[in-house]
Amino acid sequence: MSQFKPFHLAFPIRDIEETRKFYGDLLGCDIGRSTEKWIDFNFFGHQLSAHVKPEELNLAKANEVDGKNVPVRHFGAILPWEEWHALADKLKDHGMEFVIEPYIRFKGEVGEQATMFFLDPSGNALEFKSFQDQGQIFAK
């Protein structure tokens, strides 16, 4: 892959404090600038800007992938294998209610990956995944 290029994503939330606790405390994202209407996070090297705009919240519709109902609108990160498993364990210990429990998708096929889906406090869907072979990220 080419040199790392961070992306920026702005998304709606309903409450600054619950969002700060979820992304900052639970997921371990460093907090950047903020006001009473928005807050920035270092999301695994990428810039997330969460804006208080509850009227824009819309639970994602699902699409079937590997026999599971995957939320169509979602974002997340690809983590190293051990880090993904540590996060899955942390979330389970925290009592996270998963949309899709942590599991291995496409087992034994091209693109085999560990994946899990869950919602932030505002109902935004997140997917965290991992590949034992990073070369499989864009494999066909």
Automatic annotation (TrEMBL):
Superkingdom, taxonomy of origin: Bacteria
Signal peptide segment: none
Record Pfam families: Glyoxalase
SUPFAM superfamilies xrefs: Glyoxalase/Bleomycin resistance protein/Dihydroxybiphenyl dioxygenase
Domain named VOC: residues: 5-131
Annotated protein name in UniProt: VOC domain-containing protein
